[in-house]
Model the fold of this input.
Amino acid sequence: MSKKNRNIIVFIIAAVIVFFMVFANFRSALVRQLQGPIEGTDSVLTVDNKLSVISKNNYVYTWQWKDLSVWPVVAKPKSQIVIPFTGDRIVYVPLAMPAGLILADLKAEKKLADLPIPYGSECKKAKISQNSRYGAVSVLFKEGEQKDWLKLGLFDSDFKNISYVFKKNTRAEDFLLYDFAIVNDGNFIAGVGEKGRAWVFVTDVNNEKILWEKTFPEYSKFTGVEFSPDGKTLFVVEKVRYIVALDSATGRTIRVFEMPLYNTPSHQKQNICCIAVSPDGRTLAADTEPASTVWFWDIETGKKITSFHANEFTVSDIAFSPDSKYLATGCMVSSEIKIWKVPQPR
Done:
């Protein structure tokens, strides 16, 4: 056998070994696959010790993290907005009466309480804190004296009232609010969007005043935001490939997590569609589309831990388990809910 042929054979063997190592690593990370909503998943959340999946039809599928083999509890409220809430409950804005929030049991079979919103306003989005003890809604006033005002309202687990802690007149200020987040103790709400350039603010809930707000000329807009579990760090998502960690008390930049640019089909653009911070505060995860690849970073050092291809289709959302050992991924166009073993920082 010639030296050239031997080199070719050695190269082929090495390539095969590398392929099987990568494939084995991928397979070892995937722990379980669940049958979720047939119409596809919109959101994935951990609420108390449960895994909650919100379908594109606003149905809520709930599994117990401690035993994912048990068939999920399914709620099918007729709603335009729905979020799972602490204490085996859900909160939703009904289609027939969009002027308030309904608190119901986990199957949405029993109404437990309701919270009205002001006349002439409409709920646009709802979020919960990472510990699921607080919820917030964005409300746009479409008529009346406060027409064109945008407000953020906060409610707690007692579900007694909504406190409006942030407000801006969309006619007086040119801005777009894309996402918001609540700190675990309910004392601060952060929001992101664009105001000329990328825009972020933090509101002091107790004083109902903006603690600080900033624009970042190097970015066009921020599309997502999450607090760290201790509330000290704010993670804001630049649309394409950057996640900026900020000091939540001052807005000072701590570090920037960066994804590489990659080639995409002509009809698609690279974007970060979702992020999650592990409950132990050690790991940051983010999904990049259209690659459907989940990235993991060590928050303390800023170093990349690993990444893996999560789905053949678009990953809609991700969520850590309560013990930070697993990550759930949802799919926008299929029923696949995948559970992955989380790589640990070295």
In short: The mean pLDDT is 91.
